[in-house]
Amino acid sequence: MKLISTVTATLLVFTNAASAGQCVAGLNYCGSTLVDGGYHDIIQQTLRNSGEIVLSNSPGVWWGTYWKCNPGGSITYLGGCAGGCIDAGAGKSDICNHDASDWL
């Protein structure tokens, strides 16, 4: 029984590590993609460091933000996507629509 518990705990650790994988340097990402990838704390700290204090404390609006992935997994805030942000899939930059009229 102890062996099964150890194996289960080990698998959970590896699963959590894989789900918080790094973004691919050079690609751009929707905030929603990064949040789903485990980047919550990194997004918050990056926004604070860039002076976006109110936005850093508003995770509910991060879904409509746009980010560049840098070498080593760090990210740079590029701005908001007034017309929404679309996950383009693995290996491709996500698409930020700056035209809010698409919502009308």
Reported for the largest beta sheet, the result is: 3 strands, antiparallel
Number of helices: 4
- Give the spatial strand order of the biggest sheet: 1-2-3
- Tertiary shape: globular
User: Could you report the average pLDDT, rounded to the nearest whole number?
Assistant: 82
Total strand segments: 5
Q: What percentage of amino acids are in beta strands?
A: 15-25%
Q: How far do the termini sit from each other?
A: 59 Å
Structural class: alpha+beta
- Count of structural domains: 1
What oligomeric state best describes the polypeptide chains here? Answer: single chain
Query: From N to C, what is the helix and strand string?
Result: HEHHHEEEE
Q: Give the radius of gyration.
A: 16 Å
Helix amount = 25-40%
Low-confidence stretches: 1-19
Write up what this structure looks like.
This protein is an alpha+beta fold and 104 residues long. The chain contains four helices and five strands. The protein is globular, with a radius of gyration of 16 Å. The chain starts with a helix and ends in an 8-residue tail after the last strand.
List the helices and strands and how they pair.
Layout: H1 2-19, E1 28-30, H2 31-36, H3 40-49, H4 53-56, E2 65-69, E3 75-80, E4 85-86, E5 95-96
Antiparallel strand pairs: 1-2, 2-3, 4-5
Key descriptive features of the protein:
single chain; 104 residues; alpha+beta; three-stranded antiparallel β-sheet; two-stranded antiparallel ribbon; 4 helices
